[in-house]
């Protein structure tokens, strides 16, 4: 897990939601899914893999937000951004002194597996603190392969 991330210069805000209680997570998941379908250039419903990716993004966003609510004891802000190659989910809370902790010794059903889930299904996961007293836990999902650079003299420049 890394402690920082770089952002693309073509980043678009998919949505920002403040979640104050676990009971609000279902609504946040629904709004996130609607926003991803409306504001990202991904054909989410065309293939099983894109539908699965959409479900994973929404699930990880929900799990990270639930973790923030449970462990930081206050509202959490869910931010989702996309660029031409990825969707990044970031959850902010006001508990910078409680870093994310991986748990391995809990029984199934006891909770504490959200971060493990994020590490399994996301392409990159990390966290960072900001000087204003916030902690951000993020997960990045690659959604489209980047376009190959067209170099002069490359086969794509030749007419056959």
């Amino acid at each position: 897990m890394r402690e920082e991330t770089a952002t693309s210069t073509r980043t678009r805000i998919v949505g920002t939601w403040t979640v104050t209680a676990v009971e609000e997570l279902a609504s946040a998941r629904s709004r996130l899914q609607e926003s991803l379908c409306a504001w990202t250039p991904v054909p989410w419903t065309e293939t099983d893999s894109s539908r699965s990716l959409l479900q994973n993004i929404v699930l990880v966003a929900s799990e990270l937000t639930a973790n923030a609510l449970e462990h930081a004891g206050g509202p959490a802000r869910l931010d989702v951004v996309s660029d031409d190659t990825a969707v990044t989910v970031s959850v902010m809370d006001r508990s910078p002194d409680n870093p994310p902790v991986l748990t391995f010794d809990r029984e199934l059903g006891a909770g504490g597996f959200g971060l493990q889930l994020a590490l399994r299904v996301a392409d990159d996961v990390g966290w960072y603190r900001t000087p204003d007293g916030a902690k951000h836990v993020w997960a990045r999902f690659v959604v489209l392969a980047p376009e190959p650079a067209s170099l002069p003299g490359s086969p794509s420049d030749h007419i056959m």
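Residues 48-72 form the longest helix (25 residues). Confidence is low (pLDDT under 50) at residues 2-8, 150-160.
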